[in-house]
Amino acid sequence: MRFVWAVAAFVLAAMLIGAGIAQRTLFQGDTSETASVTVSDGSPYILIDGAALNSLPGSQTLRAQGEGEIFAAYGRTADVQAWLSDADYAAVSMGEDGQLASTSVAPTPAATAEGEEADEPAETTTGRSPVGSDLWLDEFQQEDVLITPLQLPSDMSLLVATDGTAPAPSKVSITWPVANPTPWAGPLMVLGGILLAVGVFLYILGINHARRSRGPRRKGLPLPVTEPIDLSVEEADKGVIAATPRTRRSISGGRRPLLVIPAVAVSALLFSGCTADAWPQLGASPTPTPTDSVLVPEGQQAPAVTEAQAERILERISETVATADKDRDTKVLAERTGGAVLSVRKTNYKLRTKIDDYASPAAIAAEPLEILLPQAYDGWPRTIMTVVNNADAKTANIMMITQDDPWSNYKLVYISNLEASTSLPDLAPYYVGASAVPPDSSFLVLAPQDLAAAYADVLTKGAKSEYYGLFDADSDVFRENVAKDRKSRLATFNETGDGTGRLTFAATAGPDEPLSLATLESGAIVAVTTHETDTVKPTDADALILLKKNPTVAAITGKKESATGFTTTFSDQLFFYVPGQGTNEKIRLLGYSSDILGAKVIEK
Fold it and tell me: Domain DUF8094 spans what residues (predicted)?
């Protein structure tokens, strides 16, 4: 009877396991859905709108097929459209029939001064490679066929191209996973595995029972005591080799595990094939845990960059500037720097060309990114502020980086060193961003456009300046260093030049445009430049100004002496915290750097 129940268990197990496997294979249906489109207009770019990418729920998988290198990138829809605004491209959207459709888009006409569209068609830009643009949040490249998984929200779009000149890939498709759960597949296979184990157990019991049932069923009469028999002699005569009971036990004992191991292995195989959608979901859906929220000002636009995007931009700036510094290549330098940063490094290259042991400028640190404050703005130009811990220089660098238009690289235009004791004001998180403060803002204790001139006046006149009371003197290490340096150089000059020459100092506002980003306390972080000028003139008509101990000025001017004198200009890159109106706070210097900018001979 045990064998009958074992066979019944095997049959039921096979039926249940087969039914579970059939649900996961034959009866499950499609697990993905694909929409494809063929672009035949020869456009160099394809824009796949975020609405099309999210027309079905779940992640997306892009497949683009063409000849040669295929490029794909994604970014905010507004940014991608701005990058394509002066070019022909194919816009891919999802039609009402559930299929992708392609539409040719011409360049956007330029606007006139009155804000109306121009009558003439816009000029088309061709041959612009999309590879490496700072606008992209991520980009991919593959040969002939590009396949990449994505999970983009509806406000992001996808750009597909080759090199910006050749036609974009002609065949494009998007695949979404289809939720097709089989909630009873798991229970059926598990129940089948249990019945399989029961059947094996009953089969083993049946075998053991059959073995115990061998031999006479009634007890025999008592046998007389017999003497031991020498089996070796008797069996030698008969030519028979006997098998001992120990041999039988070892053979039968070795067979039992072979019956159990296959059942365990099959059950493990069944369990490993069961995923979450193969089980019934009896519990309620998990409720997200609320997190602290940040209030975004009404009408504020999206931040210019993400954290990952900013890290990539900093890395590109660092690598490009390092290459330019090594080769003293101003053309390469201009690709990633501007403003005061570009100006002082050009001077450094010139000095290193003429003075063998002249020091190279400090490298631009790209990581770790400690603070990121991007401008919340959909248009251009855009500004981002970063603080990077420069381990090599044992200091932290505060930087302002700008992008002039959608097709330009971000460029480093301000960089200064933060003092260890400097405390920054409260800033908005990077995923919210901050508004740019207009240069003529009246909401600050001093407008950004007036800040450089006011501080330069304090550097020149000290406590006699009318702006002296606006600035916090206790935390201003730079002003203290400038005063000490001027006093030291004047004393050195007077040792040899007193009576025959005069050394004077002055400071003025630099020509660079101030950059400002708002803080949470209604203040702003403002970056400006000031120019410090040292002027040395002879006071005796027969005297000459010699540059024996000043090879720097001699290398820049190409002169070793002058009867009229020399001027030397230093560029100061300064970061301030400017509080808002109605507070008792003073303007605080956050960071500074000073480098020689130029020198010239005074004309008569």
Answer: 302-600
Would you say how long the chain is, in residues? 604
pLDDT higher than threshold 60 for residue 308: yes
Cα 90 to chain centroid distance, Å, stands at 28
Kindly state the DSSP code that residue 276 receives in the 8-state scheme.
G
Do both 428 and 380 map to the same domain?
yes
Asked if residues 206 and 6 have their Cβ atoms less than 8 Å apart, the reply is: yes
Q: Are 152 and 53 in contact (CB under 8 A)?
A: yes
Return the number of other C-beta atoms located less than 10 Å from residue 426's C-beta. Answer: 8
pLDDT digits (tens, 9 = 90+) for 445-470: 999 999 999 999 999 999 999 999 99
> Into how many domains does the chain fold?
3
CA angle 32, 33, 36 (to 5 degrees): 135
Please identify which residue in the block is written with the tokens 């930087």.
Answer: 399
Distance CA 101, CA 77 (A): 18
Cβ 576 vs Cβ 451: under 8 Å: yes
Q: pTM of the prediction? A: 0.79
Residues contacting residue 549 through CB under 8 Å, at least 6 positions apart: none
List, in order, residues 6 or more apart from 451 with CB less than 8 Å away.
514, 526, 528, 576, 578, 587
CA atoms within 13 A on the CB side of 556: 21
The DSSP line for 141-181 is: EEEEEEEEEE---TTEEEEEESSSSSPPPSEEEEEEE----
> For residues 7 and 273, which has the higher predicted lDDT (pLDDT)?
7
The boundaries of the domain holding residue 44 are 32-110+121-177
Whether 307 and 369 have beta carbons less than 8 Å apart is answered as: yes
Separation between Cα atoms, residue 205 and residue 197, nearest integer Å: 12
> CA Rg, the chain, in Å?
41
